[in-house]
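Page 37, continued from 36.
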């Protein structure tokens, strides 16, 4: 795990360094806590566009499906960085104060997550049909929380905690989505989809419906009533979007259960034929 932490740290630091020239253009117009954001948006947008071309031409997918898999590609990049560096930051979080002052590493990671939200959300403003409006809402409210964290200078560790909880299931989610969209053009993807379907359903429900709700309730209480250093004009809405996020996760749980039941019913019907 230490090697992963060091590797993710190195990736983020090298990426920040390599994008300094791009950031230098907008730096005079931005405060220090926002200066890495444009470069990260540029990087993730380029990853999206390159992966879009790959999925479109390598697997002969239409634009909508290729865009969805390109979205999953940058989600995978974000998830790996967010989970590994986030884990490292959380192990050092001894105070458990949700309004701790932001550290430089936390600011960089928060900007990276915000850049992912901006870059990924942008695909829904392009000529591709949104495939899941709930995901769009998730990006908007997540971005709002991250903007508040950077603006107030406090609470980045709280955002890292929330994102860590979310990204724990991202590898399964993205692998599941890849397999689902490619199952008609690849027998391997079809077999992988059948294998991953119950694993993803169980893993998602365990994290988002069993573990996350009590943690989010603790967070919201601490954020609203024990974080006086964050102005109320930011504190109350930011806590609200986290609460909305966990409610939306339960909607995903319901959809997953329905989808899994439908898949099992279809398999049973085929056996009876």
């Amino acid at each position: 795990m230490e090697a992963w932490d060091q590797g993710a740290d190195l990736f983020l630091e090298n990426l920040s360094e390599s994008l300094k020239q791009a950031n230098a253009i907008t730096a005079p117009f931005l405060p220090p806590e926002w200066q890495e954001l444009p470069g990260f948006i540029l990087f993730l947008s380029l990853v999206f566009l390159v992966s879009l071309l790959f999925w479109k031409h390598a697997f002969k997918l239409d634009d909508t499906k290729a865009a969805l898999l390109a979205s999953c590609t940058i989600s995978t990049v974000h998830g790996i960085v967010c989970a590994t560096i986030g884990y490292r930051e959380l192990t050092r979080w001894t105070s458990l104060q949700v309004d701790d002052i932001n550290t430089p590493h936390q600011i960089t990671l928060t900007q990276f997550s915000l850049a992912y939200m901006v870059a990924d959300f942008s695909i829904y403003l392009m000529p591709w049909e949104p495939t899941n409006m709930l995901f769009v809402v998730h990006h908007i409210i997540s971005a709002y929380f991250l903007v508040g964290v950077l603006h107030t200078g406090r609470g980045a560790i709280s955002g890292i905690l929330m994102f860590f909880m979310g990204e724990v299931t991202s590898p399964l989610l993205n692998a599941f989505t890849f397999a689902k969209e490619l199952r008609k053009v690849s027998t391997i993807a079809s077999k992988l989809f059948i294998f991953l379907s119950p694993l993803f359903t169980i893993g998602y429900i365990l994290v988002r419906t069993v573990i996350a709700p009590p943690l989010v309730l603790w967070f919201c209480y601490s954020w609203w009533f024990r974080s006086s250093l964050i102005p109320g004009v930011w504190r109350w809405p930011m806590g609200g979007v986290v609460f909305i996020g966990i409610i939306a996760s339960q909607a995903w749980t319901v959809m997953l259960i329905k989808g899994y039941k439908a898949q099992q019913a279809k398999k049973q019907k085929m056996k009876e034929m």
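Residues 232-272 form the longest helix (41 residues). Flag for discussion at group meeting. The chain has one domain: 2-272.
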